[in-house]
Amino acid sequence: MLSADGSVGSPHVRVGHRQALYLRKGRSHPGAAFFLGLRMKKNITSILSVSFLIASCTQHAQETATLVITGARVWTGDSEQPWVEAVGVKDERIVAVGSAESIEPLIGEETEVISVEGSMLVPGFIDTHVHFLSGGGGLASVQLRDAKTPEELSKRIASFANTVDPGEWILNGDWDHQNWGGELPSREWIDAVTPENPVWITRLDGHMGLANSLALKLAGVDADSADIEGGTIVRDAADSPTGMLKDNAMRFVTAAVPEPTNAQLDRYLDAAMQYVASNGVTTVHDVSAEGSGGWTSLATYRRAQRSNKLITRIYSIPPLSDWEKLIGDIGTNGRGDDWLKTGGVKAMMDGSLGSHTAAFLEPFTDTPGDSGFLINTLDDMRTWITDADAAGLQLVVHAIGDKAIRDLLDIYYEVAKENEVRDRRFRIEHAQHIHSDDIERFVIQDIIASMQPYHAIDDGRWAEKVIGAERAKTTYAFQSLIDGGAHVAFGSDWSVAPASPIEGIYAAATRRTLDDANPNGWVPEQKITVEQALRAYTYEGAFASFEEDKKGMIKVGMLADMVLLDRDLTTIAPETIRDTRVLKTIVGGRVVYSGK
Prior knowledge:
Layout: H1 17-24, H2 32-61, E1 67-70, E2 73-75, E3 83-84, E4 86-90, E5 93-98, H3 100-103, E6 112-115, E7 120-123, E8 125-130, H4 132-138, H5 150-161, E9 170-175, E10 199-203, E11 208-211, H6 213-219, E12 231-235, E13 241-247, H7 251-254, H8 262-278, E14 281-287, H9 293-306, E15 313-317, H10 323-333, E16 340-341, E17 344-348, H11 378-390, E18 394-399, H12 402-418, E19 427-430, H13 439-444, E20 448-451, H14 453-459, H15 463-472, H16 478-484, E21 487-490, H17 501-510, H18 530-537, H19 539-543, E22 562-565, E23 582-587, E24 590-594
Helix pairs in contact: 1-2, 4-8, 8-9, 11-12, 14-17, 17-18
């Protein structure tokens, strides 16, 4: 049944109202008619899916539940029934939603009942952008994210070096040079305290890293080493490497780091799953590292699944450069199941703002001779994306600067026109600094903006110094995209930022920067409501992986992935959201985390 706004039942079914608006006004945006036809084709499928679920509700609701949750205010994410009082679960799926009185008959002798007055139950949070295994490994490494001075960074590395064996690599770190004013670190800061341990510690955004002299030696990087396209070896006045390497140049050192053992990888995964579960995350989209990292991750996840050890659902996304290998893997193993799936490939257009490696149309404000760079040539990206899309894979591509975003939108448009019509759900990861002229293209071309709201309150401390006030107006343009009708899915970019949807919802709703310098919000016109942020962390995350028919809402027939919070996020002051605690995280009807 069509509603007045052109939706069918669930809020995700739309008939291309924005594209139709262009046609009615006689406006000629590239591909408007093309994408309108594709949206209407998707609606027919959605109507059939809704009809099937409705037909199955009566049977499900009569079963005795294995789990009942009551006493909470339940935000379902379903526009037809947005708020209920209780939920009944049978094994892995939701069998009933409604009033506490209507759910009570489902309680049997073996039913587990969770009742917390004053709490809030929401669909399980979906983090659409994590680096899962490396994040898990980082939990056991040196912690540098909040190091405020060069001296503190050196001291922490020295202390950690005393806890490991000689010869063992010191990795991760997640330092942020903006904490001490922006000076890039040098190997001279750490050489004296790490004479027997190679060090390769990365900035929190993953786009540059610091190596000590021992690590540079093992990697074969010296004054004679040539720069690589799409990367930089930072050098001193004598042309010797300072230890800083950016983007593609990081591969020189990364290649020298020994591969972790399976036992280590299993520990990384367990640590990662426990961490995200404590934050209410039930599904992650793992955008794995370049090279063998993506396949190492997938092998680790499959090993855990065979042992029934997964407590987090994972969409594993290897590099675009391996798209043919993924097609072969799908031919052998299929695309997975409700716990572990494949089908997407990840690529990168540019670097990051903090590293001055994001590609912009105009130079940076603080370095007028520099506008960043593309990591790969446009011809290469166009060819790879065309081929991977033709093979039926989902494209998940990082683009941060306005030039990188525009170039990627152009490529996506060309590929969609060239290859067969289908529901492809192209994604732009980060989509941080969109040119104002390009915001509507996300709607017209049906592009998913996969964004990380915590970055807005982190980068917002210093971003205007780098790009100026005018470009900042469409930085993390959540409200403009959502108002226009675009799909906006939220994630964290963990371990670049905390994998905490609560922090992300706080960031999206307040935009109060971490330094408290913007109490009314940095670029406040881009703030969104709590319910809009909840949708971006639930339904939209499921939509971004073609799984909106099984997760992202608390609805009969859906997987029983839910999070119990200690307060109702929609009724409290937005600035207090970050104080919210996760009480229970439930995956497939099983409690995988209980808070204190």
